[in-house]
From TrEMBL, chain A:
Organism name: Micromonospora halophytica
Name assigned to this protein: Putative membrane protein
Keywords, comma-separated and alphabetical: Membrane, Transmembrane, Transmembrane helix
All copies of domain YdbS-like PH, residue ranges: 161-239, 338-405, 456-522
Segments of this protein annotated with the region Disordered: 1-110
Signal peptide: none
From TrEMBL, chain B:
Domain annotation YdbS-like PH: ranges: 85-161
Segments crossing the lipid bilayer: 35-55, 61-83
InterPro entries, alphabetized: YdbS-like_PH (IPR005182)
Pfam families according to UniProt: bPH_2
Keywords of the record: Membrane, Transmembrane, Transmembrane helix
Organism annotation: Micromonospora halophytica
Name assigned to this protein: YdbS-like PH domain-containing protein
Top-level taxon of origin: Bacteria
Length: 537, 172
């Protein structure tokens, strides 16, 4: 915040507010002593709207003249502000222009977070070195390598922690990062969709939490603040939501999940459904991975017996490979353990997870599509799975565990019908009018032509596809963003066309291989009905 | 070039609702822009292959040269036809864009779903006095892109889309 020249730019620094008592944060930088004289006016705890425009920068904000860099990297601290919490060099290099007077000081993340990042990297390091390295270099060297790499990662994490800070300026949350490539991200809080408090296992053990911000249009989850103290995370969430003008409907801290076996706050609202953990286990045993595992084990054991060699490395590698195969079902079991679904006013509350408990609130008016899946092996039991697509949540993330897309990890048909009727009022899962494509579509889809179907219901568009894993996608007309008709060369010969109904997230609904005339009718109907649905709300 | 195949059924692939929709063509100058673009790419490739052929004298390189040339010519013909096939229509509540020859696409984008409008013009397009208007919705899959518009028409379309979008704005 302070320009190194010590000129007029010192003023904002001394105008820094004292630490907010409601915001007890021992690791925030203490305010520098008021060395600028009486220029400072006491600032209210929250940056007042008068201090900053919508973009947080007053007209006089940018520092005059080019910022004087300090190649040596020694921050010329304001006298008295030295010490362990001195101004980090990031502020000196002029990357982050001086905040407006009254902006709150930058806060650091919890001092334990580098340790947690280091511990996380330990797993990566061991996985990266792999068993073959262990066999080649011996146990002692292996441990030494692991320790060195993990220490290196921890040091990097400490450096990054040192240079990471956040604060709220006006109606923006600013996050400063990086030592060499400095980056300041300003997240306009108007665009904030949701703030989630997530507690991975390690964080649960240390009493920390991670804050995730979901922003409209963001390609991925913006700015995970990892890690904060649980109380701080809850308070910051509350504050961000209030600045965003969206006071949470529920009491503060409801989204914070206490770790450990202590009494958990039950998801408020009217409970809709609770998945039995036994069903969840059986359902994940009925996946191809779990089903084929015994065969793999038999194969490997037979090979070992015929080879006659039982080296430790071979066994360890086999076990690792099996763990890799089983990872997805095991993860699903861990993620969906104790799955509870409740309805609260106009939103759904989903609570799930064994190691990492999460509570997600899904506003019903943001549901874009509902997907129903019947995996092949589950049909024995008559089970199905329900998923949601919600607008505003990231689609580009490979790790889809953070998206609120679970509606029902496993359940029978009546349950599915009930939940679908709850999410999309007036929709009967069993009564959807699905019409098959014309018989000549078999030239394009010889096997799955019998499964394909599309239909216009009163309020939703529904399509079905998938031979082995059957899928049904339901899109409310009001959520259709655009309609497309696509016709490939073979389809042209057969007078077929494919109709897409695009939604804000997920793939939307695709009606494959409809008769050309029907496709045009579908497109016209979808357009007209989505228009009408939006008119009426 | 509407419906190049006379054997089309009563409803043509690219022209639904013929009585209510008036299709606007895009500027033919786009053909030159696209051809120049193709020619530059092709020239680099052909020079590389030609030099390789001259140096190595290998027959395969010569064959590759010929294949690239043929593909380039075919692509040039495709460009001409594709630009003729591209069209857009403004209806009361939505914008229709059609394009594509091999795979034909028609997009119907309601004005109320518009998030923002892009008007862009690259150096080559600017030299021919053209611009591209693209309509963005919250769905990544929507493709409503109209290239080859005169700047006046582009800004008219942009202003109209923006006005209509604000008029009927709705969120997700």
């Amino acid at each position: 915040m302070t320009e190194s020249s010590g000129g007029p730019e010192v003023a904002p620094d001394c105008a820094r507010e004292p630490a907010d008592p409601a915001w007890p944060d021992p690791w925030s930088r203490p305010a520098g002593p008021p060395d600028g004289g009486g220029a400072a006016s006491p600032a209210p705890p929250v940056a007042p709207p008068t201090a900053a425009g919508p973009h947080g920068e007053p007209a006089a904000g940018p520092p005059a003249g080019p910022p004087v860099g300090h190649p040596g990297g020694t921050p010329p601290t304001v006298p008295g502000a030295a010490g362990p919490w001195a101004t980090p060099p990031a502020e000196i290099a002029g990357i982050t222009p001086a905040g407006p007077p009254g902006a709150e000081p930058r806060q650091r993340l919890h001092p334990l977070s580098p340790m947690l990042h280091g511990a996380k990297s330990l797993v990566v390091v061991i996985a990266g070195l792999s068993w073959s390295t262990l066999s080649r270099v011996g146990f002692g060297w292996f441990v030494a390598m692991v320790v060195v790499l993990a220490l290196g990662a921890t040091v990097l994490a400490v450096v990054s922690w040192w240079n990471t800070g956040y604060h709220i300026v006006g109606r923006e949350l600013r996050i400063h990062e990086g030592l060499l490539w400095r980056r300041t991200r300003a997240i306009p809080l108007e665009r904030l969709q949701a703030v989630e408090v997530v507690r991975p296992l390690l964080a649960q053990l240390t009493g920390l939490a991670e804050l995730r911000l979901e922003v409209v249009g963001g390609g991925k989850t913006e700015a995970p603040l990892a890690y904060l103290g649980v109380g701080d995370a809850a308070a910051l969430r509350q504050r961000l939501l209030s600045v965003a003008g969206r006071a949470p409907a529920h009491q503060p801290g409801a989204a914070v999940v206490p770790g450990g076996p202590g009494p958990r706050p039950e998801a408020t609202g009217r409970p809709l459904h609770a998945v039995r953990n036994a069903d969840l286990l059986v359902s994940q045993l009925l996946t191809p991975q779990a089903f084929l595992l015994p065969l793999g084990v038999v194969f490997v054991v037979a090979q070992f017996l015929s080879e006659g060699s039982w080296s430790f490395i071979a066994v360890a590698s086999t076990l690792t490979a099996m763990a890799g195969v089983l990872l997805q079902p095991v993860r699903r079991v861990l993620d969906d353990w104790n799955f509870r679904l409740a309805r609260e006013d106009d939103s759904l509350r989903v609570r799930n997870g064994l190691l990492e408990t999460r509570v997600q609130t899904v506003p019903l008016d943001r549901v874009q599509t509902v997907g129903v899946t019947w995996p092949l092996l589950w049909r024995v039991k008559g089970w199905l799975r329900l998923r949601l697509e919600v607008a505003g949540y990231s689609t580009g993330e490979p790790d889809d565990r953070n998206r609120p897309d679970r509606l029902l990890p496993v359940g029978d048909l009546p349950t599915g019908v009930r939940i679908v009727a709850e999410v999309l009022p007036g929709v009967r899962l069993t009564g959807l009018p699905l019409a098959p494509p014309p018989a000549r579509a078999r030239w394009l889809r010889p096997l799955s032509v019998r499964v394909l179907g599309a239909g216009l219901d009163e309020r939703v568009f529904a399509v079905r596809s998938g031979l082995l894993t059957r899928r049904l996608v339901i899109v409310p007309y009001a959520r259709i963003q655009s309609v497309r008709v696509v016709q490939g060369p073979v389809q042209r010969r057969l007078r077929l066309a494919t109709v897409h109904a695009d939604t804000a997230s997920g793939g939307g609904a695709v009606a494959h291989h409809r008769d050309l005339a029907e496709a045009w009718v579908l497109a016209a109907e979808l357009t007209a009905r989505s228009h009408a649905a939006r008119r009426t709300g | 070039m509407n419906g190049p195949e006379p054997a089309q059924p009563p409803v043509s692939a690219l022209e639904p609702w013929p009585d209510t929709v008036r299709w606007q063509p895009i500027s033919r100058d786009l053909i030159w822009v696209e051809l120049l673009r193709l020619a530059t790419g092709l020239a680099v490739l052909l020079v590389g292959l030609g030099v390789g052929w001259a140096l190595s004298g290998h027959r395969l390189v010569g064959v590759a040269f010929g294949v690239v040339l043929l593909l380039g010519l075919w692509r040039a013909v495709a460009i001409v036809r594709a630009v003729h096939a591209w069209g857009y229509a403004e209806r009361e509540n939505d914008l229709l864009v059609r394009h594509g020859l091999l795979v034909r696409r028609l997009s119907i984008v309601p004005y109320s779903r518009m998030q923002f409008v892009d008007v862009s013009a690259g150096p080559l397009e600017r030299a021919f006095g053209l611009a591209t208007v693209q309509l963005h919705t919250a769905a990544a899959a929507s493709d409503a892109r109209v290239p080859g518009l005169r700047p006046a028409e582009a800004s008219r379309l942009r202003d109209r889309l923006t006005a209509l979008g604000e008029d009927r704005a709705e969120g997700l």
